[in-house]
Amino acid sequence: MHVSVDPEKCCSSGLCALSVPEVFGQDERECVVLVLTFEPPAALHDRVRAAARRCPTGTIEVRD
Ligand code: SF4
User: Fold this and answer.
1) What pLDDT, on a 0 to 100 scale, did the predictor assign at position 22?
2) pLDDT at residue number 40
3) pLDDT tens-digit map of 15-58
4) What's the CA gap between 39 and 60, in Å, rounded?
5) Alpha carbon separation from 30 to 17, 33, 36, 41, 55 (Å, rounded)
6) Which end of the chain, C or N, has fewer beta carbons within 10 A?
7) What does DSSP assign to residue 43?
8) CATH of domain 2-63
């Protein structure tokens, strides 16, 4: 799995960082999403996919 984001789309909701803090964080100033782990381990894949589905702006892209 490879995780990428388009920060221009992010509305800084923080949902992804709350649900998978191992993979997503937020910029301290603007709260825009940061990817902390671009290739997360298999144990996190379901949660990462769920976070991508729930992102209100479609910012998160997941490739296998
Ligand atoms: S859930 Fe989407 S919009 Fe919200 S912080 Fe994460 S990437 Fe940004």
Assistant:
1) 98
2) 98
3) 999 999 999 999 999 999 999 999 999 999 999 999 999 999 99
4) 13
5) 14, 9, 16, 28, 17
6) C
7) G
8) 3.30.70.20
**Dist CA 1 CA 18 (whole Å):** 20
Ligand 1-lining residues (CB < 6 angstroms): 5, 10-16, 33, 55-57, 59-60
Distance 42 CA to ligand 1 centre (A): 21
Q: Which helix (H) or strand (E) holds 5?
A: strand 2-5
Tell me how far the alpha carbon of residue 34 lies from the centroid of ligand 1, in angstroms.
Answer: 9
pLDDT, mean of residues 55-64: 98
| Tokens standing for residue 58 | 């479609």
Domain boundaries, the chain: 2-63
pLDDT at site 6: 97
Residue located nearest, by CA, to atom 8 of ligand 1: 10
